[in-house]
């Protein structure tokens, strides 16, 4: 399976996407993976992309440029493929990769619809290969630390509300069609798919994957072709908590999440893309309100919780751990059904939010 006796996952990258540059470094630092080849419709473009990345963060053996995705999938020296291709064309290539016996890590949103994702997952299951989406924060050491606080019974208490926002202010040329994220044929879900995927995933993680009983959604702004560029949603859970999210290409960069309960709340200001630092943190707040006749005092009682974890594809960064974890599953030929299951759940909730938004924000039941 491998080029040497050491366990090494041989990666192929389909498409020279910008996000793949970050993951090039993550694979390099994973310790159990190498980029073996990069495919593009144009081999010269793939070679230029390789040369630029190799000049900054080189593999000991430079990856090969491949003309055509089919050629990449036909190679017998590729164990897994990373697929950052646009959502609108991704399904066919995920299915083709699975049928070629390649493990599949794909970008999000995984598909244009939940039905597409079900087909993709079924193909991977039938082929006995791993399927996983590229949500990096799922692999951070910060999440187990946050779980400990949420479950300690005294910091947050009973969870009542989850709120999150992921947004950035896109330049004019982006919104005018200069970026595929507003192209209805390539990225039909717009900001909901690109950013809302993370906010929905965070709420689902907090709720230990409890399925919402119902959702509502609202398209606040969209392109002339119907691509959402500003969206808000609400999730209602059978056990009682509610969650709201906001995702937008029209609001300056924010990526915060807050979990509120009967005793306090936790606040995370960079839950998707960690601030450039050697620590990842969140703040637990247990404010105390005092009154004494005319004196009213709101006392701040904050506790900072941090884990030692670098950002920017460092050896222990969340994206590096993503590729390390995936490679272990691929090398062990032991697919973990948790990852495709939560990807499908995220897509189903996203679909329901969009259905609501396109029907005057009527509540949609998830059963």
Summarize the structure.
Strand 1, helix 1 and strand 2 form a beta-alpha-beta unit. Helix 1 packs across helix 9, helix 5 runs antiparallel to helix 10 and helix 8 crosses helix 10.
Provide an overview of this structure.
The protein has 367 residues and is α/β, with parallel strands linked by helices. The protein has 2 domains: 9-137, NAD(P)-binding Rossmann-like Domain (Rossmann fold, 3-Layer(aba) Sandwich), CATH 3.40.50; 138-319 and 345-365, Dihydrodipicolinate Reductase, domain 2, CATH 3.30.360. It is built from 10 helices and 17 strands. The strands form 3 sheets. A 9-stranded mixed sheet has the order 16-13-12-11-7-10-9-8-17. The protein is globular, with a radius of gyration of 21 Å. The model has no long low-confidence stretch (mean pLDDT 96).
């Amino acid at each position: 399976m491998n080029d040497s006796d050491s366990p090494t996952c041989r990666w192929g990258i389909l498409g020279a996407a910008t996000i793949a540059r970050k993951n090039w470094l993550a694979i390099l630092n994973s310790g159990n993976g190498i980029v073996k080849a990069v495919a593009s419709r144009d081999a010269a473009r793939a070679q230029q992309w390789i040369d630029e990345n190799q000049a900054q963060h080189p593999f000991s053996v430079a990856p090969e440029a491949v003309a055509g995705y089919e050629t990449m999938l036909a190679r017998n020296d590729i164990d897994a493929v990373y697929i950052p291709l646009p959502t609108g064309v991704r399904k066919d290539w995920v299915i083709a990769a699975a049928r070629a016996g390649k493990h599949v890590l794909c970008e999000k949103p995984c598909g244009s619809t939940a039905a597409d994702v079900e087909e993709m997952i079924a193909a991977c299951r039938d082929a006995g290969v791993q399927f996983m989406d590229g949500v990096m924060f799922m692999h951070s050491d910060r999440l187990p630390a946050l779980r400990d606080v949420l479950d300690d019974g005294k910091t947050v208490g009973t969870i009542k509300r989850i709120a999150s926002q992921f947004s950035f202010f896109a330049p004019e040329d982006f919104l005018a069609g200069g970026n595929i994220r507003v192209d209805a044929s390539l990225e039909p879900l717009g900001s909901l798919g690109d950013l809302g995927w993370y906010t929905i995933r965070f709420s689902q993680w907090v709720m230990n994957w409890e399925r919402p009983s119902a959702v509502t959604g609202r398209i606040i702004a969209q392109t002339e072709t119907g691509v959402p560029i500003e969206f808000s949603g609400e999730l209602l859970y059978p056990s009682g908590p509610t969650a709201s999210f906001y995702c937008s290409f029209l609001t300056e960069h924010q990526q915060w999440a807050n979990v509120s309960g009967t005793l306090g709340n936790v606040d995370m200001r960079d839950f998707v893309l960690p601030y450039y630092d050697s620590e990842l943190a969140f703040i637990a707040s247990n404010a105390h309100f005092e009154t004494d006749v005319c004196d009213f005092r709101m006392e701040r009682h904050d506790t900072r919780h941090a884990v030692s974890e670098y950002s920017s594809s460092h050896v222990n960064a969340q994206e590096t751990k993503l590729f390390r974890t995936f490679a272990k599953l691929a090398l062990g030929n032991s697919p973990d059904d948790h990852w495709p299951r939560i990807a499908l759940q995220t897509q189903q909730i996203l679909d329901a939010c969009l259905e609501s938004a396109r029907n005057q924000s009527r509540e949609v039941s998830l059963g």
